[in-house]
Structure of Response regulator transcription factor:
Amino acid sequence: MPGDNRAVLYDPSKVRVLVVDDEPSIVKFLEFGLRREGYAVDTAEDGVEAIAKARESMPHVCILDVMMPGPDGFEVCRMLKGMGNVAVILLTARDAIDDRVKGLVGGADDYVVKPFSFEELLARIHARVRNQFPSLLKQQEVGPFVIDDARKEVSFRGETLKLSSTEYELLRYLLQNHGLVLSKAQILDHVWGYDFNGQDNIVEVYISALREKLGDRDRTLIRTLRGQGYRVDLP
């Protein structure tokens, strides 16, 4: 998504991370660091153990070494992806470009090159949780907006907007897809539901109401693309 200005807030204790590496020192380092950050961490030292533990309690994120005895990281990644929604971050050697390409083509979501900084790994975990597990988010920062799902509120430049429940759902949908053109049909299906039998001009009515509350009189924030739909452009 272009111009990704989002940061996320979530409870790390609700995120299950599986660390898989045949080097005990790396496993201990990552386990200690991630537990200190509040994550629920499980570990494995080979592919067989990794799959067994994943079946017990499916992790949200798997930090997975490529080079391991038995099933290697590529095979473990394929098996994990077949089990459900899990974000796989591969650990690769600095000069193993082919491995990175093979991993991404094979279904991995990201990779980190050894040696790596713990801060970089955390940033990549944040990105994967944000993109693949939005239900875990408490708040999302989208440019000058803050979406608070717990309170069903949206703040704009520090001020909480007074929104109806439908206005909240519509603005949330637009913001989470900022930079993308959303058709009226897409908006109706997502906000009003597939069984909505009303007029599609209701979208125009609610867009107009949002623009009024945002002070978007020149329509530079919520843009209308004639014949296509609407797009949020962040300042």
Remarks:
- DSSP finds eight helices and twelve strands in the chain.
